[in-house]
Design a protein that fits this description.
The protein is of the alpha/beta class. Helices cover about 35% and strands about 25% of the residues. The protein has twelve helices and 20 strands. Strands 1, 2, 10, 11, 12, 13, 19 and 20 form an eight-stranded mixed sheet that branches. Strands 4, 14, 16, 17 and 18 form a five-stranded mixed sheet that branches. The two termini are about 40 Å apart. Bound molecules: flavin-adenine dinucleotide (FAD). The site of flavin-adenine dinucleotide has 44 residues, from helix 1, helix 2, strand 14, strand 17 and strand 18.
Length: about 425
């Protein structure tokens, strides 16, 4: 049986960031991941280092709108009928976490991680030679109607350290002259936000840096995890068996069975998301923009405009929904009518907990197994921060923030 000091399970942006950080700290690391970078969520996302996104998905406002959001066929949030029954426990927890008290607590937990997101990404981009892929032009949240303006939401974000300005339609026009003049009544502007010009290219540079850092690679899927007193044993679908002093579970939306094998029941599910792309050199927008009521981002990227987002609750195995792709395209054309034909479309799996807070830290049975999964809408943003915390835990250093809000057991003491 092969041996290693630390086995990192999962090769998305979180697993790769963790593997790199640990290797740079002089650890002997083996990465167990079926594909290299690949076309999963870590490449297909909207590319926003969303350090302003302190609010959880579940808030009192979302809870009030939940029935219409879930069952309106054109809404940015959909549920597949076939998945309703299996998703009921997750939805019940989501509803409970959307109440005012839990939502405020969850926002604080997210904000504590986001405070480090931008500096950690700058440092990681320097490390992997990807500074050229980061842009700092800010992010716009477009109000199409006056009823969408929510000063209380902006105040809540400001109270958690976010810099945001309410801007008028004229100011919006100055920032984005390519936006049709009859679209929008104003916007919220997050001037400091960074975006990634090409998340797929970012993943390739990260994977190359990991390979260059002497991380051993097992191109397989872990099928069994056994945490004993002296070691963790992993068995993989290609027959490989690996003995590690420690393991880090970073398998995104597929982490729940691995955590179960390590002794923890975690209510992880997936919020499926979509993107469509329009190949175009000249882009109508110069920065990332979100029409708030539509739940997607316009993301100007290298050589193409990506339109990414929306949420479909529907599990890990159902095929992509052509209807959800159409909803995305119709929404994009409602804002930017002159878009060309769609060049390609894609669906991916956000790893989501009902409170929108990731699981970071040791399993219940001790720190031989560490968790780094469940980052939901913020996995790209939070990958380097997560890696920093995991590296501190492995080194026995104080990670500098209380980890209780991110513990796998935080759901045990509540009915949901
Ligand atoms: C449409 C959309 C837009 C998004 N936009 C943004 C954004 O702008 N900003 C942001 O911060 N986040 C965004 N996200 C969220 C972000 O993409 C995810 O949170 C992030 O990619 C999750 O990374 P991960 O490494 O945890 O998981 P993944 O990228 O899913 O990687 C998990 C890896 O684990 C591997 N794996 C699974 N099971 C096993 C196993 N048993 N053994 C070994 N390996 C295994 C998988 O093959 C996969 O490669 C978006 C997501 C979507 C869908």
């Amino acid at each position: 049986m092969a041996g290693t000091e630390i086995a990192v399970i999962g090769g998305g942006v979180v697993g790769l960031s963790v593997a790199l950080r640990l290797a740079d700290a002089g650890r002997d690391v083996t990465l167990v991941a079926p594909e290299d970078a690949g076309d999963g969520a870590s490449s297909g996302n909207a590319g926003v280092i969303a350090d302003y996104a302190v609010l959880p998905v579940g808030t009192p406002e979302v809870l009030r709108a939940l029935p219409s959001l879930l069952f309106d066929r054109l809404s940015p949030l959909a549920i597949r009928r076939s998945a309703v029954v299996s998703l009921l426990p997750w939805l019940a927890r989501f509803a409970a976490q959307s109440l005012p008290g839990p939502a405020r607590r969850n926002a604080r937990a997210i904000a504590a991680l986001l405070a480090e997101a931008a500096p950690e990404w700058r440092a990681q981009a320097d490390r992997i030679g990807a500074r050229d892929l980061l842009r700092q032009r800010g992010s716009l949240y477009l109000y199409e109607r006056a009823s969408e303006v929510s000063d209380s939401t902006l105040d809540w974000q400001r109270s958690l350290g976010v810099t945001v300005e309410r801007i008028s339609r004229d100011e919006l026009g100055q920032l984005e002259p390519g936006l049709p003049s009859d679209v929008g009544v104003g916007a919220a502007f997050f001037p400091q936000t960074m975006t990634v010009a090409d998340p797929g290219a970012l993943m390739q540079r990260l994977a190359a840096a990991v390979a260059g850092a002497d991380v051993v690679r097992v191109p397989a899927r872990v099928t069994a995890l056994e945490a004993g007193a002296g070691a963790v044993t992993l068995r993989c679908d290609d027959g490989t068996a690996l003995r590690a002093a420690r393991a880090v579970v970073a398998a995104g939306a597929w982490s729940r069975p691995l955590a179960r094998m390590a002794g923890d029941r975690v209510p992880l599910d997936t919020e499926r998301g979509y993107h469509i792309e329009f190949d175009m050199g000249d882009q109508p927008l110069t920065r990332q923009m979100t029409p708030v009521a539509r739940g997607f981002y316009f993301c100007p990227m290298a050589g193409r405009l990506r339109v990414a987002g929306t949420v479909e609750l529907g599990g890990l195995t159902a095929p992509p929904s052509p209807h959800r792709v159409r909803v995305l395209e119709e929404g994009a054309r409602a804002v930017l009518p002159d878009l060309p034909e769609v060049t390609r479309h894609w669906m991916g799996f956000r790893p989501s907990l009902p409170d929108s807070v990731p699981v970071i830290g040791a399993r219940r049975g001790g720190d031989r197994v560490l968790y780094a999964f469940g980052h939901g809408h913020l996995g790209l943003t939070l990958a380097p921060v997560t890696a920093r915390i995991i590296a501190d835990l492995v080194a026995g250093r104080d990670p500098g923030l209380a980890l209780a809000p991110y513990a796998p057991g935080r759901f045990w003491n509540t009915p949901f």
